[in-house]
DNA sequence: CCGTATCCACCCAGATACTG
DNA sequence: CAGTATCTGGGTGGATACGG
């Protein structure tokens, strides 16, 4: 790394930066569309339009926006085929696949506790 | 269950309802504040004000809002002590603790891939 | 201390239209 | 087909105030 002379002060600064970066990553990832896209991609590679069909209810805009975010964070790889009509494929990278494992767990949880939640809501009064 | 005579049609209807319910639960849970609150609660039981301090940056409003949601879905239990000043304790229920296990994994992921993400961003150009 | 209600500024997401 | 830009309404969350 660069410029690491005054260890005490810069260590604290590093911690703060790391913290804020961690929170930023968390915010990026902990949102419904991102997680649904990751789940949709799974092991496959899909084109933009296939993803659009796969992730029910997502708009063109939200899809591109989240795909950019995922590319930026190195979660997905974007491969452009210079054909006509154009074709763009998206695939999860290794970090993306690791993240998907946790998303799978979340989906599993939803399935497992579906009944609990339904009845909890009834007790609560919808 | 009630009113289940015409099996074919109501089965389809059930699937649709189950699906929309699943998506609703997913949306409830897949949001940054909910996940951070769950993580903050952990095994402990905390009062409202302690949670407020623990979950950095959350507003009074967002905290109550998410806690209500979690109570409604049976993820957390709310215990009011009729003292003065009032005191309200929150604890994760069993479903909530199960969910926390997946959140822990997500946090672990963030920590593990921190470096990957940082460098991916540099490659991308911030 | 905890909860709710009101107000309002801001952001976000959808719609639309246009490029390559 | 995929991506970008612009516009706009409605939702969202912060601030504030007040009640239990």
Question: What is the element layout, followed by pairings?
Answer:
Two copies of one chain form a homodimer.
Chain A: H1 7-29, H2 32-41, E1 45-47, H3 48-54, H4 60-72, E2 76-81, E3 87-92, H5 94-124
Antiparallel strand pairs in A: 1-3, 2-3
Chain A binds a DNA duplex (20 and 20 nucleotides) through helix 4.
Structure description:
The structure is a homodimer of 126-residue chains. Chain A is mainly alpha-helical. Chain A has five helices and three strands. The first copy, chain A, has helices spanning 7-29, 32-41, 48-54, 60-72, 94-124; strands spanning 45-47, 76-81, 87-92. The first copy, chain A, has a three-stranded antiparallel sheet. Chain A is flat and about 55 Å long. The first copy, chain A, starts with 6 loop residues before the first helix and ends with a helix. The model of chain A has no long low-confidence stretch (mean pLDDT 92). Chains A and B meet through helix 1, helix 2 and helix 5 of A and helix 1, helix 2, helix 5 and helix 6 of B. The structure holds a DNA duplex (20 and 20 nucleotides).
